[in-house]
Design a protein that fits this description.
Number of strands: 0
Order of helices and strands: HHHHH
Helix content: over 70%
Radius of gyration: 20 Å
Structural class: mainly alpha
Strand content: under 5%
Low-confidence stretches: none
Mean pLDDT: 85
């Protein structure tokens, strides 16, 4: 029974840690133009936070820049292809429709 309580306490700790990542990230990086978003790697965000909290904010930001290599950006752009709001053809049709009405 004690092992179950220890495991549940650890799960609670991990859940709190994960829940705090977005706020911690924003408080450190927002004034440099970075925002955390739903598809950003939480491990990358966590690592950047840890680097920044050691006192080297420039190194932490360099780590974020390095994360966004060609492969990562290409993959993220490809995932946006399926979102109608990001389809340039749909956007043009919507804007023309608004003008015609």
């Amino acid at each position: 029974m004690d092992a179950v309580l220890v495991d549940s306490n650890e799960l609670v700790r991990q859940a709190r840690e994960l829940a705090n990542i977005p706020d911690r990230f924003s408080s450190i990086f927002a004034n440099r133009g970075w925002i955390i978003y739903d598809m950003m790697s939480l491990e990358v965000a966590k690592d950047a936070i840890e680097k920044a909290e050691t006192g080297d904010l420039d190194q932490a930001e360099a780590y974020l820049v390095d994360y966004y290599n060609v492969e990562t950006v290409t993959w993220k752009l490809q995932t946006m292809n399926g979102v109608e709001a990001f389809d340039p053809g749909t956007a043009r049709k919507s804007s023309k429709k608004g003008i015609e009405e």
